[in-house]
Each structure stands twice: as C-alpha cells, then as structure tokens.
Design a protein that fits this description.
Elements lengths: L1 E6 L11 H8 L4 E6 L12 E2 L9 E2 L1 H11 L4 E12 L2 H7 L4 E6 L8 H8 L3 E6 L8 H13 L9 H9 L15 E2 L2 E2 L9 H18 L2
Parallel strand pairs: 1-2, 1-6, 5-6, 5-7
Antiparallel strand pairs: 3-4, 8-9
The structure holds adenine (ADE).
Length: 222
C-alpha cells in the first residue's frame, strides 16, 4: 500500500519510522510519502491560507496550493482522505475498508480547514474523496488524526502484524464488544491475584469467562 500525507508540518510524521509502522515500511509492505504543502506555495511569503469569504474567524487553506500537490498524486485507485472534525466518524469497519485500498492520500488541514472546492474538484473528476473525523473534538489540525488512522489501517494489512492470531481474535470481538482484561506474570502483584479461572487450563471455561468480562466492560463504558 502507498500512503501519502500532505501537511505544513512534515515533522509530525516522524513516528511512522517507529515500531510496527517502521517495520512495515522497511519490509516494503507500506510505502510512505510525506509532502510539505508549503514547498508548493507560489507567493513570496509562502502563504498557504487566507481569510474566509463571507467573514468569520480564522483562516482557510487556499485551493491552488492543494491542487499543485494533489494533481500529480491522484490516480484512479487513490482514496483522498480529508481530515476534518465535520467528517464521518472513523471506526474499525472504516479502517478495515481503507486497508483494502492500494493508495491512501491524507490531506491535513490546519486552521479552519481547506477551501471546499478542493473536495468538490476531485469528486467531480470521479475520484474517491472522504471527509473523516477521528472523534467529536477539535484538534489543531489533521496530522495527529492521520497518524491515528494510519496506525489503525496498516496493522490490518496482511503481514504487518507479527502475530496474525491477534487480528483473528479482534475481528471475532468486533461485534460491539470490547476486549477482556489481560494478565501476565507474576501471578500475584501487590496482593492482587490473577483470576483463578485463567490458571485452570480449561479453554472452554476461559473463553466463557472472557466473553462475560468483555460484555461487562462494554456495559461499563456506555
Ligand atoms: N482536525 C481537527 N479536528 C479533527 C478531528 N477530530 N478529526 C479529524 N481531523 C481533525
């Protein structure tokens, strides 16, 4: 999978070199391209934003510079993802869908977002364009939201996770349940013991206990 991100803060994407994502890139399963929007600015001050038509607070990112970066990146197979708190809420099924794509482009807006004509233009050209939010809160920009999405999506690509069983177990748990609590050594820590059932070796009973715990947890988080 090819993943491009367009941003005025390329340094935000340094974590892509770490851990699972770094390994996925090294092994060639994923290829990252980070593009500095400001490098495409055409005016003397490298300006990428301006005041909104119609008035109001804040600044809006100008369409011209976005067009310059996106035109050469956009292919028939590309999914353009525009990060905005007003977008469709990102969740596990959406991560799963995007993990099937061969090319994702993350457009990281700052300020009051990107001039809407950028979205309109690529939609009109027949491209797949998605406005996505990672949750009901407002971030300073789309960079952190992109990182969240990239991590959730790439770990679903076959070969990225060291232990594919983790994925199998997760998808089994996807029907609205959260995961059960986990324990490891030592058996007793600060007077708290690991639940007896987990030491029993009775796999059927352990599975039942875990399912009940997961449901309990989900209820408590409602
Ligand atoms: N940009 C600002 N807030 C955001 C959010 N919650 N999700 C995605 N992009 C954003």
């Amino acid at each position: 999978m090819k993943i491009d991100a367009v941003t005025i803060f390329p340094d935000y994407f340094a974590p892509l070199q770490l851990s699972l994502l770094g390994k996925a890139a090294q092994s060639g399963l994923v290829e990252f391209g980070i593009h500095d929007l400001r490098a495409y600015a055409t005016n003397v001050h490298n300006q990428v934003d301006d005041t909104p038509y119609g008035g109001g607070a804040g600044m809006v990112m100008m369409p011209e510079v976005w067009g310059c970066v996106l035109d050469p990146l956009m292919k028939d197979e590309s999914d353009l993802i525009i990060l905005t708190p007003a977008g469709k809420r990102f969740d596990q099924p959406m991560a799963s869908k995007f993990s099937q794509s061969s090319h994702l482009i993350f457009a990281c807006g700052r300020y009051e977002g990107i001039d809407d004509r950028v979205r309109q233009h690529y939609l009109a050209k027949g491209h797949r364009v998605h406005e996505v939010s990672i949750g009901d809160y407002v971030l300073g920009g789309g960079e952190v939201a992109s990182l969240v999405m990239i991590e959730a999506i790439t770990r679903l690509i076959p070969g990225v996770l060291g232990n594919p069983e983790s994925l199998a177990e997760e998808s089994h748990n996807q029907e609205g349940y959260l995961e059960y609590p986990n324990f490891t050594k030592p058996q007793n820590w600060r007077d708290i013991s690991v639940p007896e059932i987990l030491l029993s070796g009775n796999h059927a009973e352990i599975a039942k206990w875990r399912a009940a715990q997961a449901i309990e947890r989900a209820k408590n988080n409602l």
